Amino acid sequence: MDLTLPPRVTDRAFERLAEIAESAGNPCALRIAVEGGGCSGFQYDIKLDDPAPDDLVLEKGGQKVLVDPVSLPFLSNAVIDFSEELIGARFVIENPNASSSCGCGVSFSI
What we know:
By secondary structure, the chain is mostly beta strands. It has one domain (about 10-110): HesB-like domain (Hypothetical Protein Aq_1857, Chain: A), CATH 2.60.300. Helices cover about 15% and strands about 45% of the residues. It has one helix and nine strands. It has a six-stranded mixed sheet. A hairpin with a 5-residue loop joins strand 2 (about 30-35) and strand 3 (about 40-50). The model has no long low-confidence stretch (mean pLDDT about 85). It comes from Plastorhodobacter daqingensis. This is HesB/IscA family protein. InterPro entries: ATAP (IPR016092), ATAP_core_dom (IPR000361), FeS_cluster_insertion_CS (IPR017870), HesB-like_dom_sf (IPR035903). Pfam families: Fe-S_biosyn (PF01521).
């Protein structure tokens, strides 16, 4: 794993987060975490959350994406995006550290 590069958030992901905050009527931050589990060994946990003091905060236009220090090495150089397709819309992570992933893209192995 290359631990030198932080994850990158696309404009499309920040725009979607701004839409969520506007519909909620208050600012919100998107937390991206990596946890043990899933069919491939690790899984992403993506949720709205409040910042913690030791989080890496990626910010644009007042929108924030949070990554905790434990998850950061697993997300080094990853791209956090928002995908809208006929089957649904969701935040997605293109992770160069993942050696394999499951079909749904939620779990991965390193």
